[in-house]
Design goal:
It is built from four helices and ten strands, in the order E-E-E-H-E-H-E-E-E-E-E-H-E-H. Helix 2 packs parallel to helix 3. The protein starts with a strand and ends in a 17-residue tail after the last helix. Strands 1-2-4-3 form a four-stranded mixed sheet, with helices on one face. Strands 5-6-10-7 form a four-stranded mixed sheet. Strands 8-9 form a two-stranded antiparallel ribbon. With about 200 residues, it is of the alpha+beta class.
């Protein structure tokens, strides 16, 4: 099974994450940031990844370190659970409408880091979290998963809806990219024979 459990402890945060890439979408998430917990739950539910996240951080400063460090460990955990990536589809793309907004995420599990975040948010906060930290989350995931992750919001008016549509689209795109291709389950999806 494609499962990984990782821990990271710094002077600013302590993060414990467990992923099961072949799960059913069960989650147990507690970061101390309600909206961020809600977004991580979307990844589990829509990505069909069993996900446990227990994290504490210096929220008296702000949520930046916590959100970024969760992204670091999440990316590392997925990379570890994928192993040699043999048989995966590698690519995933999903366009997701949510009420008045539309967002798209494209992923390539190439072994090369290439994050793109084209999302303009009309408000500075959603719940208790600064909206600018979510760019750092996706960049941290891309860097530690060694993937191209392109997140784009085409239009929208509500920051909650925009971010949630991005996270849901990310979950669906990731689900597609990590899925085993039954027609090529013994092959690496690359002419280089290396990812």
């Amino acid at each position: 099974m494609r499962i990984c459990q990782l821990n990271r402890k710094t002077a600013e945060t302590e993060v414990q994450i467990e992923v099961n890439l072949d799960g059913t979408g069960v989650s147990n998430i507690n970061t101390g940031c309600g909206f961020f917990d809600h977004m991580l739950d979307q990844i589990a539910r829509h990505g069909l990844i069993d996900l446990t996240v227990q994290a504490i951080g210096d929220l008296d400063v702000d949520a930046h370190h916590l959100v970024e460090d969760v992204g670091i460990v999440f990316g590392q955990a997925i990379a570890t659970a994928l192993g040699d990536k043999c048989g995966i589809k590698r690519y995933g793309t999903f366009t997701l409408p949510m009420d008045e907004c539309l967002s798209r995420v494209a992923i390539d599990l190439s072994g090369r880091t290439a994050p793109v975040f084209h999302v303009k948010l009309p408000s500075e906060k959603v719940g208790d979290v600064d909206t600018e930290v979510f760019r750092e989350f996706f960049f941290a995931v891309a860097d530690n998963l060694k993937a191209a992750i392109h997140v784009e919001n085409m239009y929208g008016e509500n920051s909650h809806h925009i971010l949630e549509s991005c996270f849901k689209a990310f979950a669906h795109a990731l689900r597609e990219a990590i899925e085993i291709d039954e027609r090529a389950k013994d092959k690496l999806p690359s002419t280089k024979e290396c990812l």
